[in-house]
Design a protein that fits this description.
four-stranded mixed β-sheet; 37% helix; 20% strand; single chain; alpha+beta; Ribosomal Protein S5, domain 2; globular
Length: 115
């Protein structure tokens, strides 16, 4: 579980990152990020209904993303607001924790958010 100090929960902040943030993507994940202006790292996760109508599948994928992020939290630069999204076209049957972990690290490297 990602600790409370790193969670991004405010709907206005989510919308602001969606509108003004930069985007990096690969075949599985999409990363939206924006400079927060303060030295805090805030991370949010989103899996849309387009990915799966079953909430159990969406929640499982979100749990995988949170756990992969929690393991890497020490390697991410502070001062950013980040949202991780799932590519809705990627099939759930091919999804796994190891795949998400690998693609998440790849995205953070592309966005130059790793220390």
């Amino acid at each position: 579980m990602l600790s409370v100090e790193y969670r991004l929960k405010n709907k206005k902040v989510f919308n602001d990152i969606f509108r003004r943030g930069k985007t990096v993507s690969n075949d599985v994940l999409l990363l939206k990020y924006k400079d927060s202006g303060i030295k805090e790292l805030k991370i949010g996760f989103s899996v849309g209904v387009k990915f799966s109508k079953k909430s159990s599948k969406r929640n499982r994928v979100k749990r995988w993303m949170r756990e992969a992020t929690r393991e890497m939290i020490g390697n991410i630069q502070p001062g950013w607001q980040i949202i991780f999204l799932i590519n809705s076209k990627f099939p759930y049957e091919q999804m796994s924790y190891a795949l998400i972990q690998e693609r998440l690290k790849d995205l953070l490297g592309k966005a130059k958010l790793l220390k």
